[in-house]
Amino acid sequence: MSDDTPDKPAAKKAARKTTRRKTTSRKKPVTPKAEATSPLVEAAGTVKADATATSSQPVSPKAPRAATSAGLITVPMAVRWRDLDAFNHVNNSKYLSYLEEARLQWMLTVPGMGMDDHVAPVVAAAQLNYRRPIAWPAQVEIELSVERLGNTSLTIGHRIVDANDRGVLFCDGHVVMVWIDRDSGSAAALPDAVREACGG
């Protein structure tokens, strides 16, 4: 009578082989990688949002903001395609146009626009420090402030910044405006309305 049951040594060897196969077939669990869009984690353990996520987002044009204790006015402005030069950034001469428009927006808030039949303002000097180029498309803000209030002149400080990130400075400097007599062309006293608008 034949016996089909394997002997004990053979059974033990088969069991060991089966165990090895099961052991070697196990895989370590894969830890999922963090997504590229996750926030930046600082060394202190706090989470800091990625500030570059919104810096390039366009914003809708806004109305000029009234003067604050530190300035005269802030004027938002859209960069136009025709403002670009051969290097595909805003030509340096256009900065003067931006500043002129901002000054006119401020003068609209001054009674009589700071002039009358006898006196009117002229630009006597302009200083511009070009800090970085302005690309297209972009929204900028022109900030005007009082640097000096004289007897016949007003020095207006200016800054052109990114409307999405006001820490990005494109240009700064100042413009000197002198009020003159329309008939003689000589310097005239600063109008009271201008002085009051500047907090003087």
Automatic annotation (TrEMBL):
Region (Disordered): 1-64
Biased composition (Basic residues): 11-30
CDD domains cross-referenced by the UniProt entry: 4HBT (cd00586)
A Pfam short name: 4HBT_2
Annotated signal peptide: none
Compositionally biased residues, Basic and acidic residues: 1-10
Gene3D superfamilies: Hotdog Thioesterase
Cross-referenced SUPFAM superfamilies: Thioesterase/thiol ester dehydrase-isomerase
Protein name: Acyl-CoA thioesterase
Species whose genome carries this gene: Novilysobacter luteus
Organism placement in taxonomy: Bacteria, Pseudomonadati, Pseudomonadota, Gammaproteobacteria, Lysobacterales
